[in-house]
């Protein structure tokens, strides 16, 4: 999280000099693998937690329309794994990658497995090369469980990710969630532009692949990645700041309309508040500040003060205008009656002056 300007020694240490010290070498080793991206099927991407309680993370919502055992889902997932490795952001990783795309592992295992065990002469059907892809529901479910059991029993050290693979529901023992994971060429970066470009590229490709290969039948699939907390905070600051600007203008507009009903005052007040907001943002940009937590707080404070001060000035001007209008009306009334009094006196004394 960036709290100071980019050139501040604290920020420079965090971004550049920290990795020169021995205690940060472990972090550097983790970053060399690249940022892993996971594509998740079987869950609905919704945040049902309380936005007012940071400890309430909500609960998982299962996508009942997703069925990995269907032939269409099997074909799509196999094509997705191939397409992922053909992307420019994919980073090749050493090792067998047994569970990163479990369907490829299952497909390869079944194609190479003979139906008769050469030692025990026991049939292995349907988990053998006589089963054709896409597999029927019973064969897929049975063989996948058998393959997972063998995978974690004999080659646990070759498991690259603890998240990738098929996830079973505890009550029904059926596959509910599927996670496909591969590393990418991007590393963890504090720069918002770099991470934003990477994340939009991944999501754009995923949307395109869902539309072209599956006609949006797997529309609830979504991508996640590690160490994007800072990016999420930066994105919230960018969108939240602009939202607060327009929300402040809307609240000021409604407040002035309810108190003045004067379109000239409304226009002048909104223009004043907008000028203060954009002037504050321009001064921060010209001063070399980048939008972060401190800058966002300054902008929000400026917005609040501008709305409050402008509303007070508008109400004070309107009150003064009403008092001034009453004063002018009273003055005109007095002058009018004084004029009648002088005319009457002149008419009364005019004969006397003639004599």
From TrEMBL:
Spans traversing the lipid bilayer: 236-258, 265-287, 293-315
Record localization: Membrane
Gene Ontology BP annotations: smoothened signaling pathway
GO molecular function: transmembrane transporter activity
Gene3D superfamilies referenced in this protein's UniProt entry, alphabetically: Multidrug efflux transporter AcrB transmembrane domain
Domain of life of the source: Eukaryota
Keyword Hydrolase: no
Keyword Disulfide bond: no
UniProt KW keywords: Glycoprotein, Membrane, Transmembrane, Transmembrane helix
Annotated membrane topology: Multi-pass membrane protein
Listed InterPro entries: Dispatched_Hh_regulator
UniProt main location, coarse: membrane
SUPFAM superfamilies from the UniProt entry: Multidrug efflux transporter AcrB transmembrane domain
Any one GO CC term of the record: membrane
PANTHER family for the chain: PROTEIN DISPATCHED, PROTEIN DISPATCHED-RELATED
Protein name stated in the entry: Dispatched-like protein
């Amino acid at each position: 999280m960036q709290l100071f300007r980019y050139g501040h020694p604290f920020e420079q240490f965090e971004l550049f000099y920290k990795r020169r010290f021995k205690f940060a070498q472990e972090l550097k080793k983790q970053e060399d693998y690249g940022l892993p991206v996971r594509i998740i099927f079987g869950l609905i991407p919704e945040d049902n937690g309380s936005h007012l309680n940071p400890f309430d993370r909500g609960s998982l919502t299962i996508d009942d329309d997703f069925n990995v055992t269907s032939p269409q889902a099997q074909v799509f997932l196999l094509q997705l794994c191939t397409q992922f490795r053909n992307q420019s952001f994919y980073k090749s990783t050493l090792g067998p990658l047994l569970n990163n795309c479990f369907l490829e592992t299952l497909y390869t295992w079944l194609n190479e497995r003979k139906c008769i065990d050469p030692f025990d002469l026991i049939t292995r059907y349907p988990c053998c090369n006589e089963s054709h892809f896409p597999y029927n529901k019973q064969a897929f479910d049975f063989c996948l469980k058998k393959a997972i059991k063998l995978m974690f029993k004999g080659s646990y050290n070759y498991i690259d990710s603890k998240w990738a693979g098929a996830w079973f529901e505890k009550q029904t023992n059926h596959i509910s969630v599927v996670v496909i994971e591969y590393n990418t060429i991007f590393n963890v970066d504090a720069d918002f532009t770099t991470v934003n470009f990477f994340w939009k590229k991944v999501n754009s490709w995923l949307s395109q692949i869902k539309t072209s290969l599956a006609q949006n039948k797997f529309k609830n699939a979504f991508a996640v990645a590690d160490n994007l907390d800072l990016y999420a905070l930066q994105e919230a600051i960018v969108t939240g700041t602009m939202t607060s600007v327009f929300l402040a203008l809307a609240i000021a507009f409604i407040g002035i309309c309810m108190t003045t009903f004067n379109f000239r005052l409304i226009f002048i007040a909104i223009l004043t508040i907008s000028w203060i907001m954009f002037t504050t943002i321009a001064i921060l940009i010209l001063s070399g500040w980048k939008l972060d937590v401190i800058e966002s707080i300054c902008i929000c404070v400026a917005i609040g003060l501008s709305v409050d001060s402008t509303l007070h000035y508008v109400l004070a001007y309107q009150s003064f205008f009403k008092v001034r209008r009453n004063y002018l009306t009273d003055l005109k009334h007095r002058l009018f009656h004084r004029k009648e009094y002088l005319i009457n006196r002149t008419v009364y004394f005019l004969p006397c002056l003639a004599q």
